[in-house]
Amino acid sequence: MIVDALLGTGTSGVVREPLATCIAMANESKARVIAADIPTPGMRADRICAFHRAKVEGSMVIDIGIPYKAECAVGPGDLLLIPSRNPKAHKGIGGTVLVIGGGPYQGAPWLAGLGALRAGADIVRIASPVFEPVPDLIYERLDGERIMEEHIDRLIPLAEQSDVVVCGNGLGTESHAVVRAVAPHCKRAVFDADALRLPLPAGGKETIYTPHGGEFARIAGIVLPDDAMGRARAARDAQIPGTVLLKGRTDIITDGSRVRFNRTGHSAMTVGGTGDVLAGVAGGLLCHLPAFEAACIAAYGCGRAGEQVAAERGEGMLASDLVDRIPALLFLRGG
């Protein structure tokens, strides 16, 4: 018997020597050829033994002990995707985030900004009509009581200068024209809360939308079922252009093809502001990760932070309590 384990799934191009001769000899042999996972290109296979899952048609699947939950649920292993900071890094290398929000709800953009800082962003600006004395955040003052169309010319350059824009936190219902005007100028973006309205802000591959069930129904026109699998199918098939982080008892993260589930969190996280922290954390991670991976890790990290806070404070949790838990969970692998 010959076990074919010459090449892996990333193989491309023409097989070169000495492998070409090895394949020819195996094909001429009278021995049975057993391929591991996938046959080497050009080599015959009498049987294909696939580890965990079939990669090609006709495979016999061999259980090697990987639980399917490890595939579909976000977990601490996802934290390994976060890139390490170069010891010679200079200020700004961690990314620049702009948060656009506030007016009717003044604390929301500031919570999002702190979330972005704690998720590794170096510089976070808050463009808002409302000031709060948070020295770690840069305040970009907008005149008036709400963000309106007269602010567009100010906001577009700020968006263009930022690695990521987090938009919608505490914005209210009267600023959607501003959101839509700024959206095309964002390199990467997280749209949350009041930015989740139709017409949906133009996003792209590296855009994250973070609706709860009601907001999802508003932008997708779909009333979600109660079961997690039904919610996942609805989110996946909604044709929303980007990554959707559908918040709930079980968070659903999908980019329209892949789907992951996040089961961390606590019932005390129903307190106002936790979604703002999540949006900010997602924005900070989006500076260095693709949207799907950033959304998965943000959901997991914020949920674990909520579990830790709830273990100490129960139902008396504040959204701001989550913020200081984030760095240890994300960067010290405290999950």
CATH architecture of the largest domain: 3-Layer(aba) Sandwich
> SSE string, helix = H, strand = E?
EHEEEHEHEEHEHEEHHEEEHHHH
Number of helices: 11
What class do helices, strands and sheet pairing give? Answer: alpha/beta
Biggest sheet features: 9 strands, mixed
- Would you report the number of β strands? 13
The gross shape turns out to be elongated
Question: In percent, how helical is the residue content?
Answer: 25-40%
* Unreliably modeled segments: none
CATH superfamily of the largest domain: Ribokinase
Give the CATH topology of the largest domain: UDP-N-acetylmuramoyl-L-alanine:D-glutamate ligase
What is the chains' assembly state?
A: single chain
The proportion of residues in beta strands is: 15-25%
Rg, Cα atoms, Å? 24 Å
How many independent structural domains? 2
Write up what this structure looks like.
- By secondary structure, the chain is an alpha/beta fold.
- The strands form 2 sheets. Strands 7-6-5-8-9-10-11-12-13 form a 9-stranded mixed β-sheet, with helices on both faces. A 4-stranded parallel β-sheet has the order 1-2-3-4, with no helix packed on it.
- The chain starts with a strand and ends with a helix.
- It folds into 2 domains: 65 residues, no CATH class; 258 residues, UDP-N-acetylmuramoyl-L-alanine:D-glutamate ligase (3-Layer(aba) Sandwich).
- The radius of gyration is 24 Å and the shape is elongated.
- Helix 3 packs across helix 8 and helix 8 runs antiparallel to helix 9.
- 44% of the residues are buried.
- The model has no long low-confidence stretch (mean pLDDT 94).
